[in-house]
What we know:
Radius of gyration: 11 Å
CATH topology: Translation Initiation Factor IF3
Strand content: 25-35%
Low-confidence stretches: none
CATH class: Alpha Beta
Strand order of the largest sheet: 1-2-4-3
Mean pLDDT: 96
Distance between the termini: 16 Å
Number of helices: 2
Structural class: alpha+beta
Number of strands: 4
Largest sheet: 4 strands, mixed
Shape: globular
Number of domains: 1
CATH architecture: 2-Layer Sandwich
Amino acid sequence: MTIDKILDAKGLACPMPIVKTRKAMNELNSGQVLEIHTTDKGAKNDLSAWAKSGGHELIKIDEENDVLKFWIKKG
């Protein structure tokens, strides 16, 4: 998997991870992948729902040392 952009949203509370993700996704072309790092536990549900509603593909979610990592392909 090729990562086209990495977003560091660690330490931000809802809704900021979504706001920053939306802004970062607007800078990508269709088919490109955004990797997001966040410490907001609510982001698991929020980013999943946001990706689906926006027509994007949530490729993977991983958790490492209390940091959630998401990979979303722009639709």
